[in-house]
Amino acid sequence: PMRIGVLTGGGDCPGLNAVIRAVVRTADARYGSSVVGFLDGWRGLLEDRRIQLRNDDRNDRLLTKGGTILGTARVNPEKLRAGLDQIKQTMDDNGIDVLIPIGGEGTLTAGHWLSQEGVPVIGVPKTIDNDIDCTDVTFGFDTALTIATDAIDRLHSTAESHQRVMLVEVMGRHAGWIALHSGLASGAHMTLIPEQPFDVQEVCDLVKKRFQRGDSHFICVVAEGATPKEGSMEIRDGGIDEFGHVRFTGVAQQLGVEIERRINKEVRTTVLGHVQRGGKPTPYDRVLATRFGVNAVDAVHAGEKGKMVSLQGAEIGLVDLEEAVRQLKRVPESRYLDAAAFFG
Ligand code: F6P
C-alpha cells in the first residue's frame, strides 16, 4: 500500500471531484492505499493544509458535484520554486509517496518541475479549454461545450425575432476549441478564435451580405482570446496579471460597438463567462474524469513517475509530463478551415 497526495490547481473545472472520487476508490479498493487531499492547490502543500480522503459514501457522491471539494488556487511559479523545501517537508511529514496534481498548463508545468526535483508525480490534465497537449480531450471541455451550445441555441430565437446581430463570448484564452465546437454545434454564422486573427471589416461585410440576402439574424461566437488583425481594430485589454496572463476585458463587447459604428446594425453581446465552468459535469466528462483517476492510481502503483494520463483514441495512456507541457494544443489550421467551410 502507498500513501498518495492529491491536489487540484488552476481554474476549477467540472469533473475534478469525479477524478478525486476515482483516485480514492481505486487506491483503497484495488491497492489498500490511502489518499490525502491537499487544500487550495499547491498552497496546501506549501502550508501543510490537508484532509484525509476516505472511500465512503460521501466520496461516492462526488461523481456529479461541480467545482472541487479540495479548493483550488493559482500559484505564482516563483513562489512555488521558493517553497520547494517546504513541499518536500510536507510530503515527508505526511508520508506521501506520490503526488497526483490535477490541473491545467500551470499546474502540470509545476508538476513537471517538481518531478525534475525528485518528487514522484503523476499528473491528470484538466481544463474546459481543451488546450493541453498530448491528450485528445480533457474533461470539462464537453461540459463547457454543452453549456455554450445551449446558450447559443437560445440566442438564435431571440436574435431572429429582432433581426439582430448577436455576439457570444465564450472562454478560451489561447485556444478556440470551445468557440469552434459550440459554433459548429449551434449553427453560428461565424466563429472567431485566437488561432486566426480576424479582420473587423470582413466581419462587417459578412454581416451585411447575410442581411442583404434576407437572413433573419447573425450569430457570431467569439473566443475571449480572439484578436483582431494588425491595424484592423484596437482592443483594450486589462494588462497582464501576476501569472503572465492577459486580463480580458471583453473583446466581444468592443467588437460589438465597432460593428454598430461601421454598419449601423443593432448588436447585442452576451459574455458567458464562468457559467461555463459551473455545475455538474456531463456524462462524457464524468466517465473521462473517472478513467483518468483510475489510471493515475494504476500508474502510481506500477511505479511510474513524471508522467501524465492522457486520452489516446479510445484508450487511456501515459505520456511524459515534459512532453505534455512543452506547448499548448491549439486548433490546427485544417480544423478551423474545415469549420469555416460551413459558414460564409
Ligand atoms: O483556463 C480555464 C479558464 O476558464 C479560461 O478559459 C479563462 O480564460 C480562465 O480560466 C479564467 O480564469 P479565472 O477563473 O481566474 O477568471
Automatic annotation (TrEMBL):
Subcellular location(s) per record: Cytoplasm
Residues at the catalytic site: D129
Domain Phosphofructokinase: start-end pairs: 3-300
Enzyme Commission (EC) number: 2.7.1.11
Pathway the protein takes part in: Carbohydrate degradation; glycolysis; D-glyceraldehyde 3-phosphate and glycerone phosphate from D-glucose: step 3/4
Record field: catalytic activity: beta-D-fructose 6-phosphate + ATP = beta-D-fructose 1,6-bisphosphate + ADP + H(+)
Protein residues bound to substrate: T127, I128, D129, R164, M171, G172, R173, E224, R268, H274, V275, Q276, R277
Sorted UniProt keywords: ATP-binding, Cytoplasm, Glycolysis, Kinase, Magnesium, Metal-binding, Nucleotide-binding, Transferase
Subunit text: Homodimer or homotetramer.
Main location: cytoplasm
Protein's UniProt name: ATP-dependent 6-phosphofructokinase
Class of the enzyme per the UniProt entry, highest EC level: transferase
Pfam families according to UniProt: PFK
Residues bound to Mg(2+): E105
Gene: pfkA
Binding positions (ATP): G11, R74, V75, G104, E105, G106, T107
